[in-house]
Fold this sequence. Notes:
Elements: H1 2-24, H2 47-54, H3 58-66, H4 69-79, E1 84-89, H5 91-95, H6 107-115, E2 118-119, E3 137-138, E4 146-152, E5 155-159, E6 164-174, E7 177-182, H7 189-192, H8 215-225, H9 234-258
Parallel strand pairs: 1-7
Antiparallel strand pairs: 1-2, 3-4, 4-5, 5-6, 6-7
Amino acid sequence: MEFCRFFILSITLLLLSSSAFAKTVSPPAPTPTPTPAPAPAPDYVNLTQLLTVAGPFHTFLSYLESTKVLDTFQNQANNTEEGITIFVPKDSSFSALKKPSLSKLTQDQLKQVILFHALPHFYALADFKNFSQSSSTATFAGGDYTLNFTDDSGTVHINSGWARTKVTSAVHATDPVAIYEVDKVLLPEAIFGTDIPPTPAPAPAPDVAPAADSPSEHSADSKASSPSSSQPDGSSASKIINYGGNLVLATFGAVMLLL
């Protein structure tokens, strides 16, 4: 009986010690992986500030504000992953518009013209090498409001149907916003039709008048054609006189010998 109790007690102690040892040699808990810090938010792009500081774009900026297109472009620049590309004419480009005139457009048409000056994606200048003249690129105006681009040795040319222009400088070209200066207002065929006025021929080069004769040349020609040039040479006259004098002396000598 005592042996059974001793045996049971021994087994119990052995089981307890095995359980304690198992707890001490259990593998350590995995270390939690730290959560990476979120990427910093991109800087807010203020299109009004860029266009005000960059150059003489006051007319285009006023159209952006009056048509409320500025809000559309601003949202695309800061709240989308696509970004935006804007083509901005200088103030002088708007002043040069005589026919057609933007003043005769309705508010909706004017809004479409301003939307026509932007692409709903960020494009660096090098990206336009992949554009083809035969393919049209959609603008913010949508529908038939498309542009054609060609790259000529690094110069980007734009064809809007009514206007053919080129990018003259990069105002801002940091993803997600690209702003490029152009030297003409982009006029869409969807509004102005296909009756495009011919490009004026270049002015003819002025005729170059022949060079006037110099005074020295004129005086030399006058001397050559003057009556004095036709007079006999003085040396010839003196020879005739000498010959006559010798003849007189010879005759006089012959007479003296006869005497």
